[in-house]
From TrEMBL:
It comes from Amycolatopsis alkalitolerans. Transmembrane segments: none annotated. Coiled coil: none annotated. The keyword Amino-acid biosynthesis does not apply. Belongs to the short-chain dehydrogenases/reductases (SDR) family. NCBIfam families: PRK07231.1. Residues 1-94 are annotated as: Disordered. This is Glucose 1-dehydrogenase.
Length: 345
């Protein structure tokens, strides 16, 4: 291959055939797969592109020494202004969401409170939504700058209302944790009233849909955003005596895929988390429904059924949700992500 970085070829010492073969493979790997590196006299990369590719924003930049002795260290950082570099600060400060506006539903406890706490700690302005007014006020009081909004996610006007209040207060919505949900009544289908089904569906499916619809309208105006819906491992399996909840969580997984496709042209990502057995108030309520006389025994047996041998925590679910909301997950969209201690492996 002709050399372009100096006028005179540098003579090479004879090498054994085996060493030469290794050298040729290495050169082919560098120059063929990684790209042809044309350099000027100062050793600066002036091409930096593979076969048939034009150098553009986001391409890997390499600095190659003028003597051609070795390839320089690749600089894999995104270009200035790329979304992966926004919201970061040097010096080790944890400010992934500095200046971002987040809306979190079901924020008074459980996953919603854990995510609100993490987002606040990392620089976001959080609008906390819940229908439990007193509990919400206490939760918001512990988070700097949090805005509590009392709303029932099953009521269309109240969904539109919490979105409007977020925009009125902050002018935009960057992040949405669409989380509010209820467990509903556990019973065989033959013993459930239609009202039992409708109650769970109204919160866990219609509420998620209405939240997506309202927030997507705002995000599309700014052509960016990240959304995480709370599904469940019930979104990928069945559960006897739990049909309303299972049906609604399957709907959340489907809505997540649809919203991801609709949002993608506007730079909006949509994912879902699917928790397994997590130690929250809802989980404790379910153990009491299963066996009112021995809820602790149900809890212990359930823990033993998990390959990791325990219930998860709300903070562990928040770790996943916050990562999905961050720009570290900038190419992740349209998926429902299990967090279940390998229970469904």
């Amino acid at each position: 291959m002709p050399r372009h970085d100096r006028d005179e070829p540098v003579p090479r010492q004879p090498q054994p055939p085996r060493a030469a073969a290794h050298r040729d493979r290495a050169v082919g790997h560098r120059e063929g797969a990684a790209g042809a590196y044309a350099r000027d006299a100062g050793g600066r990369d002036v091409a930096g592109r593979g076969r048939g590719e034009a150098r553009g924003r986001g391409a890997i930049r390499r600095t190659v020494p003028a003597d051609g002795s070795r390839l320089g260290r690749a600089d894999h950082r995104a270009p200035r202004g790329h979304p992966r570099r926004r919201g970061r600060r040097g010096g080790g400060g944890a400010v992934r969401f500095d200046g971002r506006v987040a809306v979190v539903t079901g924020a008074a406890a459980g996953f919603g409170l854990a995510v609100s706490t993490r987002l606040t700690a990392e620089g976001a302005k959080v609008v906390m939504v819940d229908r439990a007014a007193e509990q919400l006020e206490k939760a918001a009081a512990g988070l700097a700058g949090a805005l509590p909004v009392v709303a029932d996610v099953s009521v269309e006007s109240e969904v539109d209302g919490y979105v409007a209040k977020a925009v009125e207060a902050h002018g935009k919505i960057d992040l949405f944790f669409n989380n509010a949900g209820i467990e509903g009544r556990m019973a065989p289908m033959t013993e459930l009233a239609v009202e039992d089904f409708d109650r769970v569906w109204a919160v866990n499916a219609r509420g998620v849909f209405m939240g997506l619809r309202a927030v997507l309208k705002v995000m599309k105006q700014h052509k960016s955003g990240a959304i995480v819906n709370t599904a469940s491992m019930a979104a990928i399996r069945g559960a006897a005596t739990f049909s309303p909840y299972v049906a609604a969580k399957h709907a959340v997984a489907g809505l997540t895929r649809c919203a991801a496709l609709e949002g993608a042209p506007f730079g909006i990502r949509v994912n879902a988390v699917a928790p397994g057995h997590i130690d929250t108030r809802m989980a404790r309520d379910l153990t009491a429904q299963i066996n009112p006389d021995d809820p602790d025994g149900v809890f212990e047996r359930t823990s033993a059924s998990v390959p990791l041998g325990r219930y998860g925590t709300a903070e562990e679910v928040a770790n996943l949700a916050v990562w999905l909301l961050s720009e570290e997950a900038s190419y992740v969209s349209g998926a429902t992500h299990l967090i279940d201690g390998a229970l469904n492996a």
